[in-house]
Amino acid sequence: MDESPALETTALTKVYGSGHTEVVALRDASMRVGRGEIVALLGPSGAGKSTFLLCVGLINPPTRGRVTIGGRLMQDGPRSLGDLRHFRRENIGFVFQKSNLIPFLSAVENVQIVGELIGRPSSVARRRAMELLDTLGVGPRALNMPTQLSGGEQQRVTIARSLANQPSLILADEPTAALDSVRGRQVMELFRDVAHKYGTGVIVVTHDHRALDVFDTVYEMEDGALRAASHAVANASMEAR
Amino acid sequence: MNLAIRDIRHSLGRFILTTIGVGLLLMVVMGMGGIYRGMVDDALIVTRGVGADLWIVQRDTRGPFAEVSRLPRSLVDRVAAVSGILDAREFVFHTIQREHGGKPLRMGVLGLGWPIDKGEGLPLIAGRPLAQNHFEMIADESLGLELGERVRLGKDTYTVIGITRWLVSSGGDGIACFTSRDAQTIQFDEPGESVRLERQARRARASEIDFGRTQPGVLQRATGLSGNIAALPGPAVSAVIARLAPGADVDAVLRSFEGWSDVTAYSGAQQEDLLLKGSVDRARRQILLFRVLLTIICAVIMGLIIYTLTLDKLHPIALLKLIGATNRTIVGLILQQSLIMGALAYGVGYLVGQRLFPLFPRRVLVTGDDLLRLAGIVLAISILASLLGIWKAMRVAPNDAIG
Q1: Which residue of B has its CA nearest to A90?
Q2: Chain B interface with A: residues with Cβ < 8 Å
Q3: Which tens digits make up the pLDDT trace of A149-174?
Q4: A116 vs B399: CB contact, 8 Å cut-off?
Q5: What would the mean pLDDT of B390-397 be, rounded to a whole number?
Q6: Which residues in chain B are closer than 8 Å to A112, comparing Cβ atoms?
Q7: I need a labelling partner for B233 at 20 to 30 A (CA). Which of A59, B33, B259, B397 fits?
Q8: Segments forming the whole domain that contains residue B27
Q9: Could you give the domains of chain A?
Q10: For residue A6, which of A41, A50, A37, A52 has the smallest C-alpha distance?
């Protein structure tokens, strides 16, 4: 079994603009997420959480620092090492605040397409998609279009899609923001189960402190700087467990 | 999984309406081509229908379709005597507008060289060819005449004994075929009063000269039938048409006419060329230019439609990029949609055109070659139209899906 971490960032820095308009969105952010580990990333709006996800998701290159995913160095400063879109397709799953399903595909097709993109035969991709939807409890809604699904169901389909390529890393940006607390907690528990079951590293950006007990590790971000969660937060997490 | 089909299925109503719109536009392009082709075909139908290898016309004129050409009837015998000529006959063609059944009746009058040509080669759909030298006519169905109907033209009445289809002049008027004698009678028909006045004028002119005053028989002859006066020319024909004997060289026969100072001879191909470059040339070019313009408009409209459809899909496209879809997948989505729209619109245009074109007053002749060429143009338009959408899609960044 591959023992390399799901994600390792080293002194990740992202600077927007220059001179008077320079904004440092990330400052030397270093993080290590093991396989099967679920990590919460807390912080106020504008702290740099989404920028961090964009950098580790290989969507927006950092100004400095390194991103290593599944043991493979992909980003060395602004320099990309390899075909990022191809790597994303096979190794990273994304879940966002809004469900972000493709509107002209049914629930099962939204999941199936990821499998087809990585070269699985259509029938295999579909079977795998149905399994994931069943696992996440939305199998009976597989043939529904996104507009026919509730917010919670849409988010489950999105999670199923993020798992379809059996990624080593899932990045979730406030996935429960549009859900009520009960549904929100269910989704967080789902991420934990997915991480533990599939050995996937999961990073969840969240504001919801009530579900922190679900996470193995909690990070806080402020003004672009990343640090381990304060004692208060960690204790709250432990007590909740 | 075919994303283009899935997207079309998702917004089926809008796609169908758009396709029908583009299809109707393509039908107009198809129709303009058909009108153009019909006009050319109509212009050539008479020249081809009479089966002439040579056209002998008045010296330095361009033939009966381009301008007035008058030749004596006796020229037929002179032409027939030329080496290499199989047979020769009169060709009479002119356009008249008379009244029949209280309505104006405009027709091209074509004289057939009876008894060699009785109209067997005409596109008859009912009735029979001419069976007698006088008072029978074969009418095109566009004239609205029935078999057995009697039409008075000048002093004589003619019976419709045959009906043709799509036998029209280059101006679009239906053609009626008579024997060349009858055609000339119709052409040179004058009212009785006019004939009487002309005879009186001849008598007056004759009485003013010594010859007339001293010879009473001359005055008497002057007031008689014009055909009996040797000094007056007989009715003219428009041209003399001839067929070549088997094995005769058309150029050699044409050269033998070069020494004749009263006529000019053209081969069948030269006459067709003169016809196309003459009377129908401007209309032909106008339609051709209009067709080109419509094709460009069609391309622009399709381009805008595909671009708009792409704008509606920018978020899903960003999402596809985010989950790792290749550019090929995204280009395929847009290009396939454009091609499907083009193909369906072409089918709609063709089917609607098949029903509408026969209702047009002039022939719309859509040929297989033209359809094939238009299919190629539609394919090119579909590809070109998708380029704008593809360009826009390529500029979408994956993180646009997140914002």
Answers
A1: B324
A2: 1, 3, 6-7, 9-11, 316, 319-326, 329, 397-399, 401-402
A3: 988 888 889 888 888 888 889 998 88
A4: no
A5: 88
A6: 1
A7: B259
A8: 3-43+281-401
A9: 7-240 (3.40.50.300)
A10: A37
